[in-house]
## 1
Amino acid sequence: MSRFLEYEVKPGDNVPQGLPRLRLPVLSPVWRGRALRLKYPDGEIHTLVGWSGEGRGGPCELRVFWTRHRPEGPAVALAIGGDAGLRNLAPRAGGEPARGLPFLALTESLIPSGVRQIIGPAPEPEARPMQLLL
């Protein structure tokens, strides 16, 4: 049986549109850290941090875990931050500020090995009970 985590991003400077409260099933242990370094296939490196607080806000803990939208759907490794979402600290053209995100779904190839050691492999979809027509 899954546990659930409620997650909401308040509208603010980091994520102007916010994100309404979601109830996310937690299907694995949760990796927690100050930052997550993602290396893309083209060699580009992005650093994500959790973001929290009103106004400009500031860094906070970041969490990664396996979840899914529907019981029979595929599992997704989800990175979430604080009440202001995540902040992508990757260099931006023209000195633009770091980009805010409500969350980030990670492809398996982007999950760093240290994170994968904690969250494990993607869980299999739950078996869907067969419906009989009588």
## 2
Amino acid sequence: MYSMVIRSALRNVLETVGRLSHYDVNTNVVDASVAQHSDGLPSLEVYDCLEELESLGLIKMLQPIGDTKEKTDDQTFRLLNITKEGLEELQPNQQKIK
């Protein structure tokens, strides 16, 4: 496995996901929580980064949660997990996770 070079905003959001999930691939994190804890990034940029991180396979986004009959898209949130590859990206100089 190799470590890819990702831009600093993506790395910051990935680090936030890792920190909030306690670096555990089985721990779910709410997307809004990531937006709140991403230092200095506007929420829209955080959500764009989350989508890009998912496309790179560094996080996995689960289905939106919320009753679509009663809530608008603004009130719906998603759970996400850091992936094994995401953890490896955060620890490029350490022993690879098995």
## 3
Amino acid sequence: MTKAMADDFDLILEQGISFGKAGGTKPHGNDKVKTKAKKKKYITGAHGSGSAMQKAKYREQRANRRKKR
């Protein structure tokens, strides 16, 4: 083992290894909606997907059911 490798090995033994996330700055003010389920067109079924339209229908029924109480 070379001296450089021995020094690195000793440093790892003394300080340990950190497996955390890499540091970095994230841009502030990034208000993008990242999931389809939260987008307005998807919620209302306006983008034409049959699944989304059915889910929108069920959401509307559930909202109306709460108003009746």
